[in-house]
Structure to design on (98 residues):
């Protein structure tokens, strides 16, 4: 009976130790996989979701503004006449006096 209890006790300790070991291995594997996935994502140069949402809003606003501009009637812009300044010949012929 003592031998039987000792064997069961040893098997129980072995099972507990195995479970804690497997738990530690599981955490290590999860960490390694997570690091590898993050490394691959960084190599892909992906955009973060919040940056994408901001850019999406900006593009939508530009599209809306463009549509509004297309809907408004075009105004004719009057060209301004060029004004020319006539210079007299007397200004060109002036000599410097000492």
């Amino acid at each position: 009976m003592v031998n039987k209890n000792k064997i069961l006790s040893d098997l129980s300790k072995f099972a507990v130790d195995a479970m804690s070991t497997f738990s530690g291995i599981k955490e290590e594997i999860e960490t390694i996989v997570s690091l590898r996935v993050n490394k691959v994502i960084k190599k892909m140069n992906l955009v973060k979701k919040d940056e994408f949402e901001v850019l999406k809003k900006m593009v939508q606003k530009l599209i809306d503004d463009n549509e509004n501009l297309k809907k408004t009637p075009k105004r004719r812009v009057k060209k301004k006449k060029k004004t020319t300044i006539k210079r007299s010949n007397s200004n060109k012929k002036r000599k410097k006096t000492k």
